[in-house]
Amino acid sequence: MEELGRLIKVPLREFWEGEASDFTPWLADEENIGLLGETIGVELEVEAQERNVGPFRADILCKDTVTDSWVLIENQLEPTNHIHLGQLLTYAAGLNAVTVVWIAEDFTDEHRAVLDWLNEITAEGFSFFGLEIELWRIDDSRRAPKFNVVSHPNNWTKTVSRISRAELTPTQQLYLEYWTELRNRLEQRDGAINPVTAGAQHWLYFYPFPNLSSDFWLSASASVRGNWVRVTLVLSGEEGKAHFYLLKRDEEDIKEEIGSELEWRENPARKEKHIRLFLEGADPGDRQDWDRQHRWLCEKLEIFHRVFSPRVKALDASDYAPEEEDTAE
Hints:
Elements: E1 7-10, H1 12-15, H2 19-28, H3 30-40, E2 44-53, E3 56-64, E4 69-75, H4 82-95, E5 99-104, H5 109-121, E6 127-138, E7 144-151, H6 155-165, H7 170-189, E8 203-206, E9 216-223, E10 228-235, H8 240-248, H9 251-258, E11 263-265, E12 273-280, H10 290-313, H11 324-327
Parallel strand pairs: 4-5, 5-6
Antiparallel strand pairs: 1-6, 2-3, 3-4, 6-7, 8-9, 9-10, 10-12, 11-12
Helix pairs in contact: 7-10
């Protein structure tokens, strides 16, 4: 019987010696800030590192590309302390941030309670996240980061309240109209992809796999800044990784059936695994192009359902062998 590897936790400062000199530049990298954004459900774009706020310097300042609002990120390679809490609130006020992200090696119960309290008492539209950062490796493999969310707002409630009671930003309004038109088109097609309620965010979710757990779903996404639209099969849950690699066994057949090259993203630090198809050069802000984009989304959502549905239903996580990760590269 083949031996299993050993999962080893790595000290943070073994990889990042300093917060400002090592961790902040690493996190500000496009791929890594994308990992953070996926973890908290916010599409992030870095605007500045070590931004001056009076006599202090905020670690990273980002834009939420959906709402066009400021996101402040404060880092610690150590347990949380009162100094960083004070800096966090000072920076947030000085930069007019509406989303605040505090990343640390470990959160004390008191500091987690402070973020929970801030999420309860602040006005609609303000969000506070607390995340613990970890590094892991298997035996002598490369180290992999993992974000654990320890405090977060009730995003769904706040989003619904904001959309129903407050004025939308131009970008939110654009997305709301964009998805409303896609929803209407799907309704007219009367296919396997059931229409969902349109929202003012940059994605829509669909659950087209009857009698299966909610660990499988399809999403349609659009990015005004990125100039693309895409369709994604999302695999989540404790067995998401196994399901991802079991499907990857059929990568060539799936590519042939769909008629396009797919992007397979394992996202090692996250439970969600993605199989994606992009329509590049598609600007959701160009209303003249909406008909083409919506036709493409409808067609690809239906193709994804047709190609993946029988495969997803037949998945058995016990068939997965970890060595498939190496052969799949």
